[in-house]
Amino acid sequence: MTEQPARHTADTITDNDLDDLYARLDTLTAVCRSNRRAYVGAVQDVQAAEPRAEQAEATLTRVRAEHDRIAALPTVNRDETRTDTFSAGARWALDRIHAAIDEPQAIRPA
Length: 110
What we know:
By secondary structure, the protein is mainly alpha-helical. Helix content is 67%, strand content 0%. Helix 1 (15-71) packs antiparallel against helix 2 (86-102).
């Protein structure tokens, strides 16, 4: 029995070997196409998430700024005086934080 060469030549390849090579090529081609679709899908997901991430970062910046502004007040009161109750002041502070999250135009600069 003769030893099979490491690489086929036109003189040594059999029909079965050629069929096997084509089947392997078809499999590798399908894997490459699948990987490409997955890669393109992942890139699209990242690109779609970027604006949401930027929006979240902007929201956090507004919330931090509003927190710093509230924390700098002498008391936390709705009208920024010392006449309100703590409960009303806390409610006002929460309302300001919600406004910073939901309505960027409603917040005056810190």
